[in-house]
């Protein structure tokens, strides 16, 4: 394989990785930095070939809601993020976030050059090596940073980022709770560097970037955009606060306030009075930070880079500790300056005094916003996962659905008693309908018979004596005595005229002698006629339907 084809493959690999994390470049973008102490948001807009920070906001993180660089309490964070964006006037629904602390693993690998498919497989094996015990479900992403010629071949420099899927999902949850989706997720040191890296850097020197937050600090060394080292140490402003609280017998809030207002790192003469006490309290913590920094610098110089370290750029809230920069510079023998994310982007729309005060804390948020606007710092633009874009959208979508479902379930619970009442009413109505049907049936069978009996009573002639009247559902039988056939005939005519019976027939008749008198015993049969029901407003019963 010749040098040009290797170069082409490296370029392809770079392009492929970039394509994976999205080439869409919007006009404005919002970054949200989940700090354990403060949540920070920044909106950056593309303007005149550069960038302008248009809106920024900072809000206290609910206690314990972000820990070790990961959101742990989405319910508490969601509304606070919403307030942060509303108060800052940020309306975008899409934001860029990052995992912080040690929640993501950042590794620089050197691997022999190989075809891209095999490289992916080799990296997947490599990922397994870095996983903490018990963690199997991870997201990873990598970027080929460059290649170094080696005897007979070349070696690829690869930047690998790995994060447990569970942590990525957990970090996304508060965004969904705030009605947001994440455009992309990366790791905080990359964002911080993007915001404060010098635009005019040259490839001859290395820069050390140090973000000292509350819980932990990121240390990153890069030559221009080529990452050389990335570490996170679990020490930051909280350790200073705790040291003051213990030394002066104060509660944490009072100690923090004192630290922010009065504490300082001492450069030359030791201070007097209460400042001296404060100084003595924080010195061990400052020494630990210094030692960790020195170890990173030494490691880089001994093992990683030929390029000398030109300076240290400090960011994070703790970088605001008075005289910290000159203190570290004196201890480490390297120039130290405060990083200013508003140097890279104009902050025309933000009051300058406020911007200057919060600048070090805003580096990660501004860098996150820049993540979608610029291809600059491509090397450190690696997202944790290419599919974080879609993962985030899906998670947010699922969460929206969950919220909708929860809302619907709640509404259904509220409606349940009413629905039960409606069901009960339906059942009652059904019962009433059934009963009415039965009654109608009953009436249909009983009414003709009872009507018939009424009729018989009114039409039976005085010379006719009935001994039995049997009414079925549709027929009737009358038995009795009279003196003559004309009497029976008159009775039968009267029955017919009553229209309550038809098909009247003299079924049997016979002469008998009762008490020395001649009588005629008869049996008359007929069919009952169903008359229409009588309703109160109809007045007299209509007989039309009863007509044969
Ligand atoms: N003027 C100041 N002097 C000293 N420390 C300060 C000052 N202002 C803020 N801090 C400290 O900075 C820390 C907050 O910084 P920052 O917002 O960068 O942390 P974070 O991002 O919330 O934390 P982490 O990244 O560790 O989760 C707190 O410990 C706070 O007390
Ligand atoms: Mg932070």
From TrEMBL:
Pfam families: PilM_2, PilN. It comes from the Bacteria. GO terms for biological process: cell division. InterPro entries: ATPase_NBD, FtsA/MreB, PilM, PilN, SHS2_FtsA. Signal peptide: none annotated. Keywords: Membrane, Transmembrane, Transmembrane helix. The chain crosses the membrane at residues 377-398. Residues 29-196 form the SHS2 domain. SMART domains: FtsA. This is Type IV pilus assembly protein PilM. It comes from Candidatus Segetimicrobium genomatis. The gene is pilM.
